[in-house]
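Escalation from tier 1.

The customer reports that the assembly of two entities below gives different structure tokens on two consecutive runs. Tier 1 could not reproduce it. I'm attaching the input and our single run for tier 2 to review.
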Amino acid sequence: MSKIPSDIEIAQQASIKRVTQIAEELGISEEKLEPFGHYKAKLPLDLISDKPEAKTILVTAVNPTPAGEGKSTVTVGLGQALNKIGKKAVVALREPSLGPTMGMKGGACGGGYSQVIPMEDINLHFTGDIHAITTAHNALTAIMDNHIHRGNELNIDVRKLTWKRVMDMNDRSLRNIVAGLGGPLQGTPHESGFDITVASEIMAILCLADSLDDLKNRLSQMVVGYNYENKPVTCGDLKVEGALTLLLKDAIKPNLVQTLENTPALIHGGPFANIAHGCNSVIATKMAASLGDYVVTEAGFGADLGAEKFLHIKAASSGIKPDLVVVVATIRALKMHGGVNKNDLKKENVEALRSGSANLLKHAETLRSFGLPILVAVNRFVHDTDEEMEALKQICSDHHIPVETAEVWEKGGEGGRDLANRAATLIEEKPSAFTPLYKSGDSLEQKIDTIVKRVYGGEGVVFSNNAQKQLTLFKDNGWDDLPICMAKTQYSLSDDPSALGRPKNFTVTVRELRISAGAGFVVVLTGNVMTMPGLPARPGAEDMDVTSDGRALGLF
Amino acid sequence: MSKIPSDIEIAQQASIKRVTQIAEELGISEEKLEPFGHYKAKLPLDLISDKPEAKTILVTAVNPTPAGEGKSTVTVGLGQALNKIGKKAVVALREPSLGPTMGMKGGACGGGYSQVIPMEDINLHFTGDIHAITTAHNALTAIMDNHIHRGNELNIDVRKLTWKRVMDMNDRSLRNIVAGLGGPLQGTPHESGFDITVASEIMAILCLADSLDDLKNRLSQMVVGYNYENKPVTCGDLKVEGALTLLLKDAIKPNLVQTLENTPALIHGGPFANIAHGCNSVIATKMAASLGDYVVTEAGFGADLGAEKFLHIKAASSGIKPDLVVVVATIRALKMHGGVNKNDLKKENVEALRSGSANLLKHAETLRSFGLPILVAVNRFVHDTDEEMEALKQICSDHHIPVETAEVWEKGGEGGRDLANRAATLIEEKPSAFTPLYKSGDSLEQKIDTIVKRVYGGEGVVFSNNAQKQLTLFKDNGWDDLPICMAKTQYSLSDDPSALGRPKNFTVTVRELRISAGAGFVVVLTGNVMTMPGLPARPGAEDMDVTSDGRALGLF
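Tier 1 run:
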């Protein structure tokens, strides 16, 4: 295998096209384009048209491991490969959060020869969407606090504020704060805290709205806390859904960029995949389908979280249905699911691979139970042996699961030809018969039970006392028709992060429910979910720099 | 007088040109331009060239009153008028903060027929510069807190953190917070708080830096707190000046927009005018001089704060020297300085005008003592009577001060022809002999004393015990060569906001010093200075909205 330069070296050496040219190739006139520099642009919502013949490919993965799976890399690579075999594909990806970039090395734009560019911009401020969400979120908090400070006409219970603050930064010191200190002129003392911006309900709403009006309507329904009669108080009660929508009027427009091979990519929206649904925006996905014949899009974490939410939340709300689900796996990740330590991954271990592939097989089984055609993409790494590859292919074949190797990291689109051809063939041959696993009319308990049993493979659900009380409150507030957004560890099919592979005979404990009334789902928390990350002992920021003429250094 | 529509109506009906066309008219090729949509663009720093023949006009004003002076309106109107009389003028303005937009109606883009557009964008997220500053500021805080959390190798005294956090929002509840609560995994408990972003030292630095390298060097010198030996700890000690510069690599580039009459305008940077120097960026001012023959730029508040800091801080650091200072006054404001109540301003009152004009005369006297030619611009309002106008002109004439009426709010550039002609003539006839009032070698006490006596017209300075201790500490740290940045009420020449007109026989009390080592000045606080505004009882946000197709409503 040839020596491959670093991601940023590859990205900065790419023969990037002007975004006007990428747009022109998609039939978008220069008038419609809102350029952000020469290589990024926002696209207006009226480019969305109904195009039922466009095909949607959802890329998901096994439960993530420290070995890395390369889901974004495969998504980008598959898009490039489809174009290579003569299909017109558009990639639709999530927008990375800047906060983690300051902490860990490694961007969120794919890798090797399957990246979206300009990656420095995409990983930093990009077109300002996340900053707009930060501003809208904190504007609502400021308005709420000001309402309380100025007489509290809505009778908001300061002990029951659920709307906090956000920042696009990894700052653990802001998780729990006391604000409003310093006397009567400085507001009302209250407990608060900051989540990272991508955990804001506004991010989830931006990704589920299908128009500015829908956005405004959803924003108005967001619950900020409860009054002294324990009734929810909303953004609409504070009369600022218009101002918040105004702050988001540009953020709602998808961002057009390109891959290293000039495949068009829409990067828009990136909600958390635990307390939110972890998919890029409905608007971008629909626009990609309007502009191309194939949309390749991804969902967060493994299929138990990302794909499940794509199917029960994003698909249900938007009508977008996948024609094929690609499940990304690596030999390395499956060996870890089979019990191998991270330091021993370079050694061939077919036995562990066999054992760990139970994780892949469970996801395949689940996705098929949704009525969806699937295709396993094995993202090849340097140390994978031919024996291991053969064994994995045999396992899939034994279970009648189509499987292809992807070498898109090393070879770009060229390394994904087999995957792209197989994907196109499967879509032609086997129409999707997508059916959700639960109905909106099911009770909240039933929906959660369905997910735990049919998606995670567990025995059932245990509700804490607190969660049981909340179930009653949520029903009283009319929130029981909403879909479920599970907040669970991404590392395991169960709620125990150390239970790799395919755990069995487990129950899932529900600790707490939260309402995201604007996004339109009930968040179900199992265990602790971190919504504000911290920085590592040696933050990546220490290596970052910029040359005198503005070239980014040390970013990745 | 004809009925004039609202500012936003005028702005939305303007015949706006493509920014590519505005740039072309300035001789900037499309390659050099980084468009942000069709009507805004960032310009690269290499457009700055040395052009000694370009003339700089600084617009300042009397001490502000609730009656409004219209300094930005006159700045924009004078730029338009200079172009009308055949001069090639470029306007260089400050960038408004989004926070106050949510609170009070009234933007910061000028008014009537002298506005910069697109005003909705400029008043909201614009090109993201302020968001970039917010991010860079809070990244440094997160890195500092993380350093303490991870062992505190630099021995930072958690009781002496001077670097807090910022947000571009009016949120009084964030003025004083306790952060780091929740146990050892959530950081170290400490007092903190949020300033509004434009109060960040990083904003001041961005406005004083002349290159990316200078920016980085200044950022590295910012003091974040003191260690247990009471020695300053800097951003450079935390090794993140490179990362912060990377976050600001686009924010450092000036933003090109236009006025209602298509006069080019560079809008870039907007530091506070109390704890910072209140001027737009050195880079934008220099670039405006490179692109046009006349630069019209403004400074914050009245001449005692804005112009004094322009001259002692911005000019000293950059070499930019005004060829003419235009002092904006209104009949209304001078009548308030003469003791008239806001509700009685519509009534003619020549006596009060005469008395209040002492404020104007003091500013004229001060500016002349800097060796600068001056011109008074009377920004005409509806209810000003001819008698009042004549009286004011006579007063100026008695003191040999050139004066012209400006009707730029009502008539645009056409209403500023006399002002523009007079400005051009004065610049031709009377070269500036600019000399600062103090030298960098003067002691901090001497510099402060000079400002109080020669700019404010006071008797002297009283230092609090605390300030006296700080004077010693600052000398020990080698900060006594820096210029002074006075934080004083903008409403009076003295430190008593109720002392209008021209107060005499007063001293100024210095309560506290703060170091802005990266910006390169010592902030001298007199009285309380608010660095995080609050929202009013009925926030302007309640009236804001956006139409289904994205048009802003209720902004102004």
